């Protein structure tokens, strides 16, 4: 049984005769202790606070029967690990797969993950750090003009919290959306059309961060923690 926040993805599952439904990872409408195994692939890194990320792991554990296992994949800050670059870094812009690069859903796929894509003109960095600056005279925090950095495709991460642009291919032929637009470079007429750009929030995990969050829960035991092609991964067992 599968679930996803996106109705369109769930509809695709239904067309393929798979059991799936729309829900929120923070509140899954399945009875506690009813699952032998659960997987969470490329989900938890989209939650914007440590508390919410931990809550999704706790919810995953709730679904498991005692002795049941869960597999979690999240995007890693370290796209180069033990002197090895991930496939994401190796697939540079300007390669043969230009069309593939414009379709973000195929950018990085450790299992069913969907990685990022953007163009150089989307790259922007914040003038203020997310935590704000402290005014020494009064102890107040300055939070003016706080913005998240926008990631540049096929490059290393320079911030754990960032926005990843998603270029909707052929967006001008679809229903109009209230989103930013960019001019897609290319020789064809279609490539010159304006395409909507959706900015998705990511929190990329540093080494040990996912494992530490899992170990903070008394109801599970970490069986294995490992790195796989630009992702941090954990296998849990329900106690």
UniProtKB/TrEMBL annotation:
Biased composition (Basic and acidic residues): 86-103
SUPFAM superfamilies linked: S-adenosyl-L-methionine-dependent methyltransferases
Keyword entries, A-Z: Methyltransferase, Transferase
GO term, biological process aspect, one: tRNA wobble uridine modification
Start and end residues of each stretch annotated as Disordered: 86-125
Compositional bias ranges of the Polar residues kind: 115-125
Stated name of the protein: ALKB8 protein
Source organism phylogeny: Eukaryota, Metazoa, Chordata, Craniata, Vertebrata
Gene symbol of the encoding locus: Alkbh8
């Amino acid at each position: 049984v599968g679930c996803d926040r996106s109705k369109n993805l769930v509809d695709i599952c239904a067309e393929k005769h798979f059991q799936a439904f729309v829900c929120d990872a923070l509140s899954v409408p399945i009875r506690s202790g009813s699952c032998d195994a659960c997987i969470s692939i490329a989900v938890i890194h989209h939650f914007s606070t440590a508390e919410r990320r931990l809550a999704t792991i706790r919810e995953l554990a709730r679904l498991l029967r005692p002795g049941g296992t869960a597999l979690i994949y999240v995007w890693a800050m370290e796209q180069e690990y033990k002197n090895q670059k991930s496939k994401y870094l190796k697939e540079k812009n300007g390669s043969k797969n230009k069309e593939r690069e414009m379709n973000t859903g195929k950018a990085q796929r450790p299992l069913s993950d969907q990685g990022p894509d953007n163009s150089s003109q989307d790259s922007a960095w914040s003038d203020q750090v997310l935590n704000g600056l402290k005014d020494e005279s009064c102890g107040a925090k300055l939070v003016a003009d706080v913005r998240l950095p926008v990631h540049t495709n096929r490059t290393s991460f320079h911030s754990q919290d960032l926005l990843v642009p998603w270029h909707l291919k052929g967006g001008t032929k679809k229903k109009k959306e209230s989103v930013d637009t960019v001019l897609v470079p290319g020789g064809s007429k279609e490539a010159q059309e304006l395409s909507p750009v959706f900015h998705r929030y990511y929190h990329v995990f540093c080494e040990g961060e996912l494992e530490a969050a899992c170990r903070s829960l008394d109801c599970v035991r970490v069986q294995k923690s490992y790195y796989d092609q630009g992702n941090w991964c954990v296998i849990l067992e329900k106690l």
